[in-house]
């Protein structure tokens, strides 16, 4: 029964409300490990869905489930130590919401029914809002307000998009169950006009949640105000889930013969997000906001790669994996820095290399990785996307892509240098701990490891996710 | 049957226009209650939905209870608690808002007649009402500065989406799931925004969203 994957965290999340924080922390870790085990079992194919009209396993869903589950194990380990040292008023709520968040995100990855997918994504908003508000400052309140309002409106538009897709079904006189897998088999009979309208609404709706510009305005605020483990989860897992909603609809468009239209829409949003992300990174005074804008840029790259298709699609899927690993590692390192110096202002932080030498290693490695330099996986994925775009003769787009990459490299580099080697006005408040370092090291190592040796099962899963819309690895 | 449907839809449209013009928050909440009941009654009287099973009937009753009683009740409590009587400085004035509402109405009639959808008889009117309601919801969210009015705008947007859902989709495929989705969305709106409203009020002594301008680049 594959539904256990999301039922388990939902149940333990509710349990955590009744437990004291010390026990809750252990529960968080145990659930994370069990979830990883269930995920591996579902990869092995030993779990089958019970409610087949609502849930099923799709290769792209399994991939994102695995990424989410792995990141969550690392983050729960980090939270174990983080919760002791940070001032948090209501720790059981934090644990509860983290687990519910994991549960709803797993539900997104397994759902096959559009409306169930939509409900799950809506539920992620509901359970992650308290995480952003956990510090109860005025800024956190503002960030939560923007997050809830902007995302709810966006997701409401996505629901409208799915209504239009059901209208396209009615107009095509299709009497099939409303699931992605059965829609894909009858896609050519769908009414093309309403399918297009529906796709636009879905992209705007889930794009809001995914952080595509110009609907990204909630993202920097929410990521900078949430406690670091939650930011890592938002950036590394939630954005992928919203992407999954768009990707499944894109597959439907492609099968219906409208792949060029939906691809161009995605390329447009992708390029815009990259440029917006790059421009706001330069001169950014707050390092957590800098990381948030970098997420916007990377979501742009993913949308761009998916829009181009072919070889670039493979790159986009690699990019999803490596962005999640590297970005959550960076947010965890940023959490150590925030605990140590007590400020998010780049200017007031300096000399990380001498004050927090072990954090410096993970921060430095993360910086190398996120700028798209070897030996980290983002280098490969970006090269693959660029090659793929050249093959499709999108020269102007590639030019903009490279411009954005250069700007980001310059912007992140400047901030990183001043934080690592500059002078500080603050005193170190909290020392670094091994438990808060291991997770970011593990995430970074996973990214390097996947470059050197990618297990066959991961490789075939990626190929299966992109096969249906013509993605290949043979340029 | 069509006449009853049209009466309901006309009342919904009037409630939209009234909500754009109302200055008092309590009045706005009452209008929302009326609109909620009307919107959840609509599917009962539409053609093609007459052969409803008992399960569906219970579901519609639940919709009426939630949209017509529960949510307005929660909003009422929120308004009482924050002790604000009226929206004093809207971004766009009330007369201009009504005018904008009428423009939206004409615009949605225009859209509906140009879509050339083969809708069953009586569904045209539903679509017109739905588009107007959605547009007015958006308008309220943008044109008013109080957080509670923005929440009401969001709920109005939801009402519009619910109407579109009932007008456009065949119920055989999406029964319950669609309703459940909309209900969940409404709960998100009311629960979280209610909690936040309370917190905005205690943190800033007001629910004016123009105070929420600290985070920017």
Explain the layout of strands and helices.
The complex is a heterodimer of chains A (475) and B (217).
Chain A: H1 4-18, H2 21-44, H3 59-85, H4 91-110, H5 114-132, H6 138-171, H7 180-185, H8 192-210, H9 218-225, H10 228-255, H11 259-281, H12 287-308, H13 311-341, H14 352-355, H15 357-370, H16 377-391, H17 395-421, H18 438-452, H19 456-467
Helix pairs in contact in A: 1-2, 1-4, 2-3, 2-4, 3-4, 3-10, 3-13, 3-18, 3-19, 4-5, 4-10, 5-6, 5-10, 6-8, 6-9, 8-10, 8-11, 9-10, 9-12, 10-11, 10-12, 10-13, 11-12, 11-17, 12-13, 12-16, 12-17, 13-15, 13-16, 13-18
Chain B: H1 2-21, H2 25-45, H3 54-82, H4 94-115, H5 123-143, H6 147-168, H7 171-174, H8 177-204
Helix pairs in contact in B: 1-2, 1-4, 1-5, 2-3, 2-6, 3-8, 4-5, 5-6, 6-8
Overview of the molecule:
The complex is a heterodimer of chains A (475) and B (217). By secondary structure, chain A is mainly α. Chain A has one domain. In chain A, helix 1 packs antiparallel against helix 2, helix 1 packs antiparallel against helix 4 and helix 3 runs antiparallel to helix 4. The longest helix of chain A is centred in the first third of the chain and has 34 residues. Chain A starts with a helix and ends in an 8-residue tail after the last helix. Chain B has 217 residues and is mainly α. Chain B has one domain. Chain B is 77% helix and 0% strand. Chain B has eight helices and no strands. In chain B, helix 1 runs antiparallel to helix 2. Chain B is globular. Chain B starts with a helix and ends in a 13-residue tail after the last helix. The mean pLDDT of chain B is 79. Classes of the chains: A mainly alpha (475), B mainly alpha (217). At the A-B interface, helix 5, helix 6 and helix 9 of A face helix 6 and helix 8 of B.
């Amino acid at each position: 029964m594959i539904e256990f994957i999301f039922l388990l965290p939902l149940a333990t999340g509710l349990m955590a409300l009744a437990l004291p924080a010390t026990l809750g922390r252990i529960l968080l870790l145990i659930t994370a490990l069990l979830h990883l085990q269930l995920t591996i079992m579902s990869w092995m194919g030993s779990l089958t869905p019970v409610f087949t009209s609502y849930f099923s396993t799709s290769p792209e869903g399994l991939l994102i489930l695995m990424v989410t589950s792995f990141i969550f194990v690392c983050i729960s380990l980090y939270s174990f130590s983080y919760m002791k040292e940070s001032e948090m008023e209501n720790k059981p709520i934090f644990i509860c919401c983290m687990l519910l968040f994991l549960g709803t995100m797993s539900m997104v990855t397994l759902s096959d029914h559009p409306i169930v997918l939509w409900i799950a994504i809506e539920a992620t908003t509901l359970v992650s809002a308290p995480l952003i508000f956990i510090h109860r400052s005025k800024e956190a309140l503002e960030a939560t307000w923007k997050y809830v309002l902007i995302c709810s409106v966006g997701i409401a538009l996505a629901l409208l998009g799915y209504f239009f897709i059901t209208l396209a079904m009615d107009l095509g006189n299709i009497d099939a169950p409303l699931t992605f897998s059965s829609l894909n088999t009858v896609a050519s009979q769908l009414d093309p006009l309403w399918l297009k309208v529906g796709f636009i609404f879905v992209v705007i709706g889930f794009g809001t949640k995914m952080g595509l510009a110009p609907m990204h305005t909630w993202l920097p605020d929410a990521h900078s105000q949430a406690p670091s483990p939650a930011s890592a989860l938002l950036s590394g897992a939630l954005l992928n889930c919203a992407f999954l909603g768009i990707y499944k609809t894109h597959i439907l468009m492609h099968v219906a013969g409208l792949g060029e239209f939906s691809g161009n829409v995605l390329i447009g949003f992708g390029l815009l997000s990259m440029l917006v992300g790059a421009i706001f990174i330069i001169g950014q005074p707050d390092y957590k906001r800098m990381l948030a804008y970098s997420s916007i840029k990377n979501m742009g790259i993913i949308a761009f790669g998916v829009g181009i298709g072919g070889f670039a699609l493979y790159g986009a899927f690699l990019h999803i994996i490596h962005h999640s690993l590297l970005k959550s590692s960076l947010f965890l390192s940023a959490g150590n820095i925030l605990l140590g110096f007590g400020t998010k202002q780049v200017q007031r932080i300096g000399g990380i290399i001498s004050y927090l030498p072990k954090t410096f290693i993970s921060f430095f490695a993360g910086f190398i990785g996120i700028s798209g330099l070897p030996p980290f996986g983002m280098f490969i994925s970006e090269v693959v996307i660029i090659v793929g775009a050249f093959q499709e003769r999108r020269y102007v787009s590639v030019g903009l892509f490279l411009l954005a990459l250069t700007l980001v490299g310059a912007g992140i580099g400047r901030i990183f240098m001043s934080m690592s080697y500059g002078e500080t006005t603050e005193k170190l408040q909290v020392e670094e701990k091994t438990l808060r370092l291991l997770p970011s090291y593990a995430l970074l190592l996973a990214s390097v490891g996947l470059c050197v040796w990618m297990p066959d099962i991961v490789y075939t899963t990626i190929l299966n996710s992109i096969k249906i819309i013509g993605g290949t690895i043979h340029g | 049957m069509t006449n009853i449907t049209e009466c309901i839809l006309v009342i919904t449209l009037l409630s939209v226009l009234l909500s754009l013009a109302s200055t008092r928050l309590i009045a706005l909440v009452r209008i929302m209650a009326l609109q909620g009941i009307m919107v959840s009654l609509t599917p009962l009287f539409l053609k093609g939905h007459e052969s409803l099973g008992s399960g569906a009937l219970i579901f519609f009753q639940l919709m009426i209870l939630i949209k017509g009683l529960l949510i307005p009740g929660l909003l009422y409590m929120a308004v009482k608690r924050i002790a604000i009587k009226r929206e004093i400085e809207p971004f766009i004035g009330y007369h201009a808002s009504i005018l904008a509402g009428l423009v939206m109405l004409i615009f949605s009639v225009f859209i509906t007649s140009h879509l050339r959808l083969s809708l069953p008889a009586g569904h045209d009117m539903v679509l017109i009402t739905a588009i107007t309601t959605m547009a007015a919801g958006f308008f309220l969210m943008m044109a008013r500065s109080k957080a509670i009015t923005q929440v009401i705008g969001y709920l109005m947007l939801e009402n519009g989406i619910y109407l579109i859902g009932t007008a456009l989709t065949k119920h055989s495929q999406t029964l319950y799931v669609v309703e459940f989705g909309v209900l969940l969305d409404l709960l998100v709106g009311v629960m979280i925004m209610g909690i936040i409203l309370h917190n905005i009020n205690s943190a800033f002594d007001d629910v004016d969203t123009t105070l929420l301008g600290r985070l920017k680049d």
